[in-house]
Amino acid sequence: MDINNNIINKDKYKKEKEEKEEKEQEEEERKNRNEILFWNVFHNKFLRCLIIHHINNTHEWVRYEDHNDIHFNNRKKFKDIISLDRMIRSKQFILLKYKLESNEHIHITKFSSTYLFMAFNEFKNQNQINNNNNNNNNNNNNNNNNNNNNNNNNNNNNNNNNNNNNNDNKNNQREKEREKIIIILKDILNLLLTKKRNQFEIHDLTKDAISNDCIEAFNILINEPYSIKVYPSTLTKAIKNCHPDIVSLLLDLQVKQFGKIIIPKKVKKFSIFMASKNKQYTEEMMSFILFNNLNLSFLSSSSSSSSSSSSSSSTPSLLLSPSLSPLLSPSSSLSLSSPPLQLKVSRDFENKDATQSSIVIEERKNKRIKIEKMEEEDGREEEGEEEEEVKEKEKDSKEEKDSKEEKDSKEEKEEDETDFNGDFNDEDYEKQYISFRTFYSLKCLKLKYKLMELELVSNKNVTAGDFVELSIDFSFERLLFEFRVEIKYFRNHLNGIKKNQIEKRLNEIESMVDGFEKLKQLQKFIILQTKLIGLSKDYILKYGESINELHLDDGFHSLNDNSERSNLINLFRYIGLIGLHSTDHFLKLMKESMDDYKIKWYPILDCIKKENNNELKSISTPITTTTTTATTTTLLNNNNKNKRIFFISKKSEVDWFIECDNELIHSLVFEHICSDTFRIDTVELLEYIHSERVNVNKANYKSLSEKYLKKSQIEGVEPRKQYRHNFKRAIQKCDIKSLEIMDKLGIKVVATQDRFILPNTPISQIETLLDYLCTKSLFQCFCIESFERFFLELLEIYSKSEGELSLLPKVSINQIFPLEEVQKLIVFTILKGNFKFAQYLLKQTDNLGYIDLDGISLPLFLFDDSPSIYHPPGTTKKDITDLINIIEILVQKFPNNDIIIRSFYRNLIQIKGVSIEQLEYLHRLLNQQKDRNYLSETGLFESFYYLHIRSIKFTAYILSIPNIEEILDLFPSEMYNCNYSPSNNGTNEDNGYDIKDHLNSNLFTYDFIFGRDKSGCFINSFDNILDLLFKQLSFTPVNNLLNKININNIFYNNNNNNNNNNNNNNNNNNNNNNNNNNNNNNNNNNNNIINDRNCIFISSMLNSILDFCLSIKRVDLFFKYLEIIKNNENYKMKFVYTFCSPSKSILPGTTILMKNSKQPIQDNQLYPNLKVSDDLLLPIPKMIKVFQLTSNVIQKAITIIEDVEQIQKLIEYHFNEIKFHQTVFLSALWCGRIQDTARFIMNSYQVKLTCVNVFSMAEDCDNLSCSKLFLTDFFEKIQYPENFERLRIQFSFKLFRVMLLGLLILYFQDELLQYQKLITFNSSPPQTLNLLEESYRKIKSNFDNGIYSRATEMAYNITNPLKYQQVVYLYNLFQTEQVQSLFNTLLTNDQSLEEEKLFKKEQLQEYNQRDDNIFNESFIEGNIEQCQLVLKHYPNQFKITQSAITNTIKKNNIHIIKYYYDNPNCNLINNLKTDITLLNHLKLILKSHKDYKYILNYFL
């Protein structure tokens, strides 16, 4: 038989092997065919170009789930991605590595290294988090095992082992992925240092690595082949960010690099404060600083001497953390060039600062003494003596300090640091303390005592109740420390006793030998000093004794000898401490109880126990001495959080309570019942408590249950709470017997917050429990809340199995709970998002009745103030299917509930991720019920989410409408709620843009958005829907506003009101002007006006359309709607000049397509009928009315549009606007469109170049590529950089000359008072000319400061017909010969003065010696590549100056100085290595620098 089986198995194995090999062969052949087919297509030029074109023009490659992810920077081509910062932030490490290996151009900023080092840490920290989560899961599993029965432990352990193995596998996989990424990041760093070092090493990389705690990168930087120096100031960053091992490593590196250990002065003084800012290693760093032999100014002489002796006896050693040990081990790469760096025995710091540090400590003590209140008179005398001793010591130590300062004066000057890189502010320097919060969070008592000894802790704005803990459960050391902290920093509980007396007693207790008695005496002493009620109660419970000194007013004395009388006294005192009675009433009851011979002692205090699984923590919160307590008014309540329970576990305890008829004892039990701390051990004992018995006392109660729980009912306490712990335990253990007893007693238990079903409970036990509950008990003990929680836990257990609902038991819910409770349970279960449970409830419900939601307010949210679309929190795509199933059940089983069905339908379409197919299926389902119209009501809510489901881009557009979120200020939850109507205190315009006023739900119906034709395609395309959205939400509001305004005649002046008031105060010199002012007042009261707010609204609404088209990369739609806007004269709300426009800046010989060049300017010119002479010295500039694009739209357009013909098309739409081509050019430089768009503009239009360095190194813009374009292809435009400033002056005056008269017109229209003077001086030419000259000066000042936006952008009042007479007058005045001559003279003189100043400046200092020349600008900034580019095109024209070296060192850019020192042949006039004067200046500057003074030997 066995032989036959073996033969069969062999044949089966052979057959399976052959089938497997056949499949592998077929798969290999398929791959080969695909490979061949791919390369055939790829080598076909036509097909390849067609595919690439399709990829570029397909807009739906990625379907975003969040509308905020839709932006114009998505899907950039690899060749266009050059920013190192962006590649790191977006985690494109493979792409970055490839570009570096290919030596492609990469733009690097001063922040690039920070982003790289942060990337190292991100993956390192992810691994730590995963490991921590795994450990937590393991701990939870182990805890669950301990809570289960012994019979189940084997199964549970197996489950845990499987879980742990799965977790280990996942963690191992994550660890491998993390290691791969770390390796790639290391390769990237090496490539940057190898191929891009001049661009990358533009600041202190080692300090940056330490600042980000990036040890992997630091390890690469300090070793061969780079061996980058680590400067002493890096120590500050290490203390604040790293592990102490790194500080130790830095100290050893100093010995290796500089021959000695250098601790900066600030570090000596503030190192503890720095360590307190170390978020990861606060405690380790403080311990390292305080307990190592470091020469720090705040260390006491005793600590210094002790540490010195300890360190001199043996070699100091450091315990490396697991994460750092591999990095610092001998096998690590640190040992590439030398043996591994270790702490050496030779690191012995001289104890020079011992006396100085003692002075610091004494000074701090004196300051604290002055701040604290003085104690009693006796204490004052002793403190006075102590102060005198302190002064004597201080005097002696100051003499030693003076001698020390004289000896080391040179060293102190060298270590003086003026720049601390902003790590500390003045307030921190003054404090020199760590916060009490940081101090108290430390774990090491030794460290805490040391900080207290050195007076380094500040308790400012902190109360003892916030931190200090005093608990009976503390160890001796912990309790002693907490009490000392409270005495030292908060001076609480002194009670007239001096500190030295308290410390003396504490020392006596500390010297005791017996550990138990020592702790007890300390607790007793603290209770006597603090008078804390919590400690007093815990003391009685722990030792069965009371402290007579605390209870003097009760008149009794407990011998604490375990006698019956002593025990009764202690019991009543404990009850008194609870504070259930007033003092007098309690003392009376206690005296009566002690005289009552019927009361027999029973160790009832043993029933009061600490609750399991509760965190033990007590925070003392003293209260005033007037607080009423049971025994004394001097006891203070510390709000002890150690939760104590009254635990009945024996029948004898029940009997004693029945027999005892004492009010104080009753109050003890009743207090625990009221506070939900009354527990009954077993269900059998619970049954015994409820059993009837013969009356044994005058109370005439039949049972303990009736005696106490009936009283609790009278007092309003819920009796069912007392049984929920028994009930919970019976469910957890699947204890059927206990449940039967509780059912027999007829107990209905309230819900509990704890789990009913423990994790890893065997399924067989759960099935047994369910069988009893569903068939016999019918959930008799369950309330509706407990029922819900129980089944939610069942679903959680079955969730890993397929068809989990089928595994749940079948039970008729209508037989268990009333219909009203069933309805509420189902509705609120769905609203909470528990859709699986809701399905189960509906299937198990026979009668649902009719659910009316009138009493339930269901908000219909659309979006928040971000603005972001609202999705029900916590819902996922899985919930969509569940909710569809719920609606199916409701439609098929309870079709009459149309309100609830419609409500759940709305809930469904709100969930994130609903597909069109799911919505169409649901729509068909609901329309099948011909007698029901579930979807009859279609409003704003449905239209909004229909659009979102059709395309998330529609949501992106709606929520991008300007200021759509402003109206949310009127909503209570700052969420747009369709069911809420905000109060309208003004017009709709005042309330902001309200979407319900514009989104017509009758148009955006389901059929319009999702209707399909016979072929299955949508009837309305995306573009059609978007077009209607634009019309409804943007164009219609704009047109409605324009219809209220006479756009051609009426404009509004912001300053009319003020100006009119000023005019009314003037003399009536001109009747016409007075009439004009009156007319203005009347017009200002007219509602049909256009003001600045309306102009901004119209412009922003129309620009938002164009902005959105560019955000979704639809250039075709952008130009479509731009043309619509441009063709509507009413949309043109701004007036701009026409000089320096693209139409007037075309380069000679340029052949570009100009569609709009034939359009006459007069068609939309401002004041076309006004006559202007053609032979004026200063022309009056013409202005045209335009629609102006925002800078954001222009930037997006230039970024997205790649075809220069379309760029030209964009320019032609703004062909007559001032400097529009210049705006396009600057945007192209900013966006990185340098080689196409920027080059096209420079080849086609006149572009003024007066600089080479367009952007700084801090900006994420490719300044190097910009400079290469200028210097390589357009060198003739910047051939003479020394003329840049002169050209700027000439261009500025040329522009100002053209704009001057226009600016003056606007000026006099704004300043009506000045205009009145001008008219008044009309008969006096000298006064008129003086006023015009004064106005000229103001305009010139504003122009120089860049304040002329109204002249080039928006002007609201210039088309006002009421101002027309002013304009006519100014036009005529400015064309007169005298005025023209005046302004021409002023302009000529000012330009001559500016050029004369420049000439003097050039005479004093040649261009190549100035710091603002094109070379020194980059040199001071540390930009080596830019400097080299300049020197390549301007050889032997520039030199390094002393001033440039000084400013470079101030900016810590030593790297560029090293570069030009090591590379002397760089087309410079001078040589840094051979120029002795320059070299000496460099050394002089380096000597005063905090770090660079240690590398003087580099420049020998």
Describe the model.
This protein is mostly helical and 1500 residues long. Helix 10 runs parallel beside helix 12 (265-276), helix 56 runs parallel beside helix 64 (1424-1433) and helix 63 packs antiparallel against helix 64 (1424-1433).
Labels describing this entry:
1500 residues; mainly alpha; three-stranded mixed sheet; two-stranded parallel sheet; globular
How much helix is in the residues?
Answer: 55-70%
Strand content: under 5%
Shape: globular
SS elements, strand count: 9
- What is the average per-residue confidence, as pLDDT, rounded to a whole number? 77
Largest sheet: 3 strands, mixed
Number of helices: 67
Instruction: State Rg.
Output: 43 Å
Assembly annotation: single chain
CA-CA gap between termini: 94 Å
* Poorly predicted residue ranges: 136-160, 300-424, 613-641, 693-702, 709-717, 984-989, 1047-1089, 1155-1163, 1350-1357
Q: Largest beta sheet: what is the strand line-up?
A: 3-4-5
Structural class, judged by helices and strands? mainly alpha
Strand and helix map with partners:
Layout: H1 2-43, H2 45-57, H3 84-89, H4 93-101, H5 112-147, H6 153-195, H7 197-200, H8 205-211, H9 215-222, H10 234-241, H11 244-258, H12 265-276, H13 282-291, H14 301-313, H15 325-328, H16 354-371, H17 377-407, H18 409-414, H19 426-431, E1 434-435, H20 436-441, H21 445-453, E2 457-458, H22 464-467, H23 476-490, H24 499-510, H25 515-530, H26 533-543, H27 564-578, H28 583-595, E3 608-610, E4 644-648, H29 651-659, H30 663-674, E5 678-680, H31 683-690, H32 704-714, H33 724-732, H34 736-745, H35 763-777, H36 784-798, H37 804-807, H38 819-831, H39 835-843, E6 861-864, H40 877-893, H41 898-910, H42 916-927, H43 940-950, H44 952-958, E7 975-977, H45 988-991, H46 1006-1010, H47 1022-1043, H48 1056-1065, H49 1071-1084, H50 1092-1111, H51 1115-1126, E8 1134-1137, E9 1183-1186, H52 1191-1200, H53 1204-1212, H54 1220-1231, H55 1234-1244, H56 1263-1273, H57 1284-1310, H58 1312-1320, H59 1325-1344, H60 1349-1352, H61 1364-1374, H62 1377-1404, H63 1414-1421, H64 1424-1433, H65 1442-1450, H66 1454-1462, H67 1476-1487
Parallel strand pairs: 1-2, 4-5
Antiparallel strand pairs: 3-4, 6-7, 8-9
